[in-house]
Specification:
The complex is a heterodimer of chains A (248) and B (329). Chain A contains nine helices and ten strands. Helix content of chain A is 36%, strand content 25%. Chain A has two domains: 1-86 and 165-248, 3-Layer(aba) Sandwich (Rossmann fold); 96-163, no CATH class. In chain B, 26% of the residues are buried. Classes of the chains: A alpha/beta (248), B mainly alpha (329). The interface between A and B is medium-sized, with 24 and 18 residues.
Chain lengths: 248, 329
């Protein structure tokens, strides 16, 4: 799939989110097109994760519209579970199911949500495990795996639903430095395959090479967006410059 | 400041000039000598069984305190070998039994005839056995039902609906606060006035299931809450519904945590089946009381007590072992 296809996958219009009195997202609007890789950066507490989680309604937006493939998903008529099957999500702490083996983790949702037969789900699961380089760990339990391996299984689990979009919420932040590479490698292959991805991350090197667009989110506002080279080399806003000077 | 001038013999300023008292008390010489003294006390100063009450109390009391202090000195010392501590511990228990036997003034023959009279039990064992079967059946049925009640309540509770929670919490707190005997009497004697009549066995099962269901609900709730919230998020993000997440992700993890305390509840419930004798359920205690009245001899009650112990002690042990296994994970 070509990256210049202009089909809009997700459109966010004036998104606001309050936690009690705390105004976390203050009117965010953006569009994510098919095949695009969007990186979200910004200081902690700036609303990056909340923004991501609003887009599949793990957090309920307080106001604003989120349109996924032409459907306004905050509408009460929307079956949010169907929307979520189109959006794969990878968490900072992996959140693998500890009572299930890796392959069971992967085939759980296809079997119970997509109603795929067990045989087919297992086959597809093994393909995905091979893809992330962990076919030999299929029958291991998550706590027998390293952090990097767990995160790769978590990616395979998300991919098993054959989502149209993948969300990554700080996928490498909880990993030891020597394990970050293996997870980024898996993400790189997904970029090459043309997956639409939204990534909250501070892996500058990875973002620079893989992302089409960087969004700077600070204090709940979309401060600045542009290509990685624009943002990293010539940031316009003072807020962006401050942030970059701190993490570089 | 010249420390050497203050403590001329010390190599360091932390040294004492002589060992502390605990050093002497812990030495085997000291322990042996005091043991000899205690044996001497026992041989020459302990009164005969027919001595006056005051003499007995004072003399035996002092002896008892001294022996206990001597034993404690050995038992609290972590550096004494285990075999020695074992001998001392068993010795103390034996000594206590012996002192009681010698000085309590109990008429052992009468006690045996009243409470441990196997002759009087002839022909009554089948009655007790029938009672035991009823007890076990009551417990089994109530265990299953109470777990179901608890599971349903806990799952409803996890929906976090404020209105629903008011009713759930009211039920749980109420049923946990009512003594089981009151609940059974209420179900058996009062509910018929409202047109709901149960026979004795059913009334027992209903009371036990509702009462212990409330406990099970609290146990399950704790189990469900012990599962990390990231698990629900991951499940929901994959498109699983709330109930699917509960069934496939949360409950399997909660069950592991919940099984030991649930076994504990089961032990408590099995004990509480004895309460059913007040509503004339023909369970073990009720049948034992029948034998007691019929033979005018309480041996049957002792027999029932021993049967309860034989069943419940292993169960209590199993519950503790399960608990250790879960916390070891």
């Amino acid at each position: 799939m070509s990256k210049d296809s202009s089909e809009v996958m997700i459109e966010v219009i004036d998104l606001h989110k309050y936690f009690k009195d705390l105004h976390v997202l203050r009117g965010i609007s953006t569009k994510i097109t098919r095949g695009e890789v969007v990186a979200i950066m910004g200081p902690s507490g700036g609303g990056k994760s909340t923004f991501l989680r609003c887009m599949n309604r793990l957090e309920e937006p307080s106001s604003g519209q989120i349109i996924v493939e032409g459907t306004e998903i905050t509408s009460p008529y929307v079956d949010i579970n169907k929307v979520r099957t189109e959006i794969g999500m990878v968490f900072q702490l992996f959140n693998l199911f500890p009572h299930l083996t890796c392959i069971e983790n992967i085939k759980l949702a296809p079997m119970h949500v997509r109603k795929v037969s067990e045989k087919e789900a297992t086959e597809r699961g093994m393909q995905l495990l091979t893809k992330v380089g962990l076919a030999n760990k299929a029958y291991s339990y998550p706590d027998q795996l390293s952090g990097g391996q767990q995160q790769r299984v978590a990616i395979a689990r998300a991919l098993a639903m054959q989502p149209q979009i993948m969300f990554f919420d700080e996928p490498t932040s909880a990993l030891d430095p020597e394990m970050i590479g293996e997870v980024l490698d898996v993400m790189r292959t997904m970029v090459v395959e043309g997956m639409t991805m939204v990534i909250v991350s501070h892996e500058m090197g990875f973002i620079r090479e893989a992302a089409d667009r960087v969004m700077m989110l600070a204090e709940g506002v979309l401060v600045e967006e542009g290509t990685p080279s624009q943002i990293f080399n010539n940031p316009i806003q003072q807020r962006t410059q401050d942030f970059l000077s701190k993490i570089l | 400041m010249n420390y050497e001038a203050v403590q001329p013999d010390a190599q360091s300023r932390f040294m004492r000039s002589r060992p502390g008292w605990s050093y002497w008390v812990r030495r085997y010489e000291f322990i042996f000598i005091t043991l000899v003294v205690l044996v001497g006390y026992a041989a020459f100063l302990l009164p005969g069984a027919e001595a006056s009450t005051t003499t007995k109390w004072v003399s035996v009391g002092v002896f008892f305190v001294l022996v206990m202090a001597w034993g404690a000195n050995v038992l609290v010392d972590g550096e004494k070998p285990e075999w020695l501590q074992g001998i001392v511990a068993f010795g103390l228990v034996f000594l206590m039994g012996w002192l009681f036997y010698r000085y309590s003034g109990t008429e052992w023959d009468r006690l045996g005839n009243s409470f441990f009279n196997l002759k009087k039990m002839q022909g009554s064992w089948p009655t007790l056995l029938e009672g035991l079967v009823v007890t076990l059946r009551l417990a089994a049925v109530s265990a299953v039902l109470s777990v179901l009640v608890g599971l349903v309540l806990a799952v409803l509770r996890s929906l976090d609906s404020p209105t629903l929670n008011i009713f759930l919490i009211a039920y749980i707190d109420l049923l946990r606060s009512i003594p089981m005997i009151v609940l059974m009497v209420f179900v058996y004697y009062a509910l018929p006035y409202l047109g709901i009549a149960f026979d004795a066995v059913k009334a027992t099962i209903v009371s036990l299931s509702l009462g212990y269901g409330a406990y099970a609900a609290e146990t399950f709730r704790a189990g469900i809450e012990s599962v990390h919230f990231g698990q629900v998020e991951a499940a929901r993000a994959l498109g699983l519904t709330r109930m699917q997440s509960m069934r496939l992700v949360i409950l399997p993890q909660a069950f592991r945590v919940v099984i030991p305390p649930l076994t504990g509840n089961l032990v408590a419930m099995l004990k509480d089946t004895a309460v059913a004798s007040v509503v004339a359920s023909p369970e073990l205690l009720k049948r034992a009381r029948e034998v007691y009245v019929g033979k005018a001899n309480p041996t049957a009650l002792v027999a029932a007590a021993i049967i309860y112990l034989i069943i419940l002690v292993p169960l209590a042990r199993i519950s503790s072992i399960l608990e250790k296994r879960v916390s070891a994970r």
